[in-house]
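Chapter review: from sequence to fold.
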Amino acid sequence: MKTAAKQYIDLEKQYALGTKTYEEIAMKINYLETFNHNLLNKLFEITQGLLLVKKAILEERY
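The token string follows.
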């Protein structure tokens, strides 16, 4: 009986650790998705600006 109780406690600890690890990974994934989204938005803004500069240069030239 003691062995079963000990195994149960060990499994409970493993489950708690696994749950904590899962939550930490989920938080990291959420952070990275937000970071990537913001980075893509910034890249889009920079690209828009460069295209406007290119357009202005071409209009001046021709």
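Two observations follow directly from the output. The radius of gyration is 27 Å. Residues 15-62 form one domain.
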